[in-house]
Amino acid sequence: MVDYVVYGRGCFSQLDEIIAPRRKETRPMIFLIDHFFTGKPLVNRIPIRGTDKIIFADVTYEPKTSQVDKLAQQLKDEFGSISGIIGIGGGSTMDLAKAVSLMMTNPGSSADYQGWDLVKKPGVYKAGIPTLSGTGAEVSRTTVLTGPTRKLGMNSDFTPFDQIMLDPELTTHAPANQRFYTGMDCYIHCIESLQGTYLNEFSKSYGEKALALCQHIFLEKEIWDDECDDKLMMASYAGGMSIAYSQVGVAHAVSYGLSYLLGTKHGIGNCIVMNHLEEYYPEGVREFKQMVTRNRIDIPTGITAGLTDDQFDAMINVSLGMKPLWENALGKEWEKRMTRQKLRELYEKL
Amino acid sequence: MVDYVVYGRGCFSQLDEIIAPRRKETRPMIFLIDHFFTGKPLVNRIPIRGTDKIIFADVTYEPKTSQVDKLAQQLKDEFGSISGIIGIGGGSTMDLAKAVSLMMTNPGSSADYQGWDLVKKPGVYKAGIPTLSGTGAEVSRTTVLTGPTRKLGMNSDFTPFDQIMLDPELTTHAPANQRFYTGMDCYIHCIESLQGTYLNEFSKSYGEKALALCQHIFLEKEIWDDECDDKLMMASYAGGMSIAYSQVGVAHAVSYGLSYLLGTKHGIGNCIVMNHLEEYYPEGVREFKQMVTRNRIDIPTGITAGLTDDQFDAMINVSLGMKPLWENALGKEWEKRMTRQKLRELYEKL
């Protein structure tokens, strides 16, 4: 679990005070912030001291192991060691910050640690400050990274942040489409996990709460106001916590294939897939479509048009490799229900 | 926050494996278990190794600072230092284990640390394994202790457990009355915090979930089954988490007076008071009474009959000293609404 959690509108102002005891002699704090904030007022609120450094993270694409390795190497070259790293941004920035923290102390490449419990040493101090709500990356035990051979996280006891600051004010200026896609990551996660075959009361409680918050925000509220930002940040947190004893399902498994081949970002990829999953989640897809209409969002279509057989095969291979997701969604006999042919037909619809 | 959380029916069997990496050379693990379990099968499942010791904790009364100091001194005299302490029991045992862990490394008496952030050193490794659900003590940042001059916790960043194991199976054999009173501690907490003036979306989300779980268990279920134990354990956890940014109210403030003077235990004390709080929590009290009836529980009455004026005054003094609780319940002008006379009349009804 994350050791320290602060939640509250405006709590970003406490950052200087909160990280003060974590500063080590002359070693800098590194603020890794989503490049979306270049030139924006938030940058001026970062509590820079001494040799601290702000790095704008290019999260046009989701984090790659090569990007993590490069960032960690740059920091080692420039500073030797650092006091800690503070990630400020969406899920990609959260994951980058976690991974770079770990690679400041663990040898080799981050690709060596894609898997479960391969990380052997704690990283440097790391804090996460989300500016988008939905992925739950702020509380997860993983960092999703695209490596040379796979898209898989560094899952370990050392991966969660030491501190997170949940300040819903920071999400106010997110573009409405982006906010929706990221929010839907949470909603879709809930549908997949609550209908899955892996679940216990711990994850169910968190999943139900996250779902209820999403339903309130995206189906009941007439306008987007502070309450929506407050609640969506809690939905993201609860959705992230629910991962502990649950698993995602068809939307994520199919979306991973899109992401691997086409670089489709996680939130929007899940939406593109969810749009066509009536067979697996009839009630959830009906509600999802209501949310799309009500919030006047365009879900892209036709993104797989013109792909070659080899390209379809590549997506199918990545997707079918996500065995726990399929088993959670369709049970132990999932391979009988989701054949390569059937998955190909699904990809062709997207 | 608690660093590691395991939830699952039967997970107690993993205890040996989970604490193995925390064992330090020849120093023992101490298992502090509620004396209720003396001679019961659970004791035989405790993974004793080397010089490990089982101590049966007398929790007839709620923990006192003198009891904490004595236990810590005994352990120091016998072992010098220990690997850690594992609390197995209800809220009192949880609080005892947390406090003894802290007093193994912090000098002086636990009474010196009653307050906020007075504890300066981490304690020894500590794990909590609840066998009753409701108090939320397993996740709280405090340990409620009765000291020479006050009933107040050791609130600090070092107070939460390093590990908790939430195994609903352990609560199966709790006496029905005890289970109800402890469950109601959670329910009453939710009513008080959700209707209070201190609250944010973090605590609201957790409080609402805990409340919904209690309502399901105590109002909808026809019989008490495993699902009730599973859900009540999550309600306790969620209720405990909701404390972060909320506060309890009238029931707790009045109940603290009973506890101080008469030694009334926390759960039952809250029920005795809640029974008479229609003026403050009309909807909650109506529902509480439904729960009492439906679950065929007797709530004691007449417990303050025959007390002297001095005794009433003592309770009133303790109760009115809980300023944040009153302010949360009745607002900044609470002293105008809750006078000594009015509180006396309330105590006389109990």
Q: What is the tally of beta strands of chain A?
A: 9
Element order of chain A: H for helix, E for strand? EHEHEHEHEEEEEHHHHHHHHHH
- Radius of gyration of chain A from the CA trace? 20 Å
Tell me the β content of chain A: 5-15%
Distance between the ends of chain A: 37 Å
Class by alpha and beta content of chain A: alpha/beta
Mean pLDDT across the residues of chain A is: 96
List the helices and strands and how they pair.
2 copies of one chain form a homodimer.
Chain A: E1 4-7, H1 15-19, E2 29-34, H2 41-44, E3 53-57, H3 65-79, E4 84-89, H4 91-103, E5 115-116, E6 125-130, E7 144-146, E8 151-155, E9 163-166, H5 176-194, H6 201-220, H7 226-242, H8 250-262, H9 266-274, H10 282-294, H11 309-320, H12 323-330, H13 334-337, H14 340-349
Parallel strand pairs in A: 1-9, 2-3, 2-4, 4-6, 5-8, 6-9
Antiparallel strand pairs in A: 7-8
Helix pairs in contact in A: 3-4, 5-6, 5-7, 5-9, 6-7, 8-9, 8-11, 11-14
